[in-house]
Structure prediction request, 71 residues.
Amino acid sequence: MQATTVEGQIIRVGDYVSFKSDIEQYGQVIEIRLGILGGVDLVLENTNGFTGEYIGGATRTTQRAVDCWLD
Prediction:
């Protein structure tokens, strides 16, 4: 499966993408799946952990593909 960003970039498992959650962050795509409300979600991993109030300290997060961009 693949996903498309708002800018039309194609995202695949293994790619690194950036997104904004409190601050600009990045993670590696480990799974692409259909979102609960439609659209496509990316499961992202950062072994160093994410930062911020919402996902700070977590090593995995799920973000909407349209909210991400390729690094």
Remarks:
- The domain at 2-70 is CATH 2.30.30 (SH3 type barrels.).
